[in-house]
Hints:
Radius of gyration: 17 Å
Distance between the termini: 7 Å
Helix content: over 70%
Strand content: under 5%
Amino acid sequence: MRNRPVVLSLGGLYLGALLLIGLWPTHVDQKLDLAHRPPATWLVDLLGLSNAQAYDIGEFCANILLFVPLGMLIMALIPRVSWLQAVGAAGSLSILIELAQTLLRPDRTGDVRDVMANTLGAALGATLVVGRRQAAARFGSAERS
């Protein structure tokens, strides 16, 4: 990979931000009042949801998006790792973060739904890399980027 130093640097920044978010003393969205902002209000109106339901959906989606880069990074930085190994590693990190929140942060709550969403996000990220590799192999343009 030609851009390995750049990917490593960005990966380090991402992992630092991920751990900061995961181990922040309080819920990171505590003062944002996201339930009363678009797209949450849009979900409430469109689907007839309560604010709490819209918040739960938004939080689940945010957790998916938060871990997409991790799945991509693992696959990109460790070429021989399988898709399942990458997703398993990301899921394990998610479990560790949720356990740390439960045990070390009294104002945080570890949640199995967060682990599910995080693992789904990592699976999506790993799938994007696998798809890119397959497309490169199919069209004869070995990984040049």
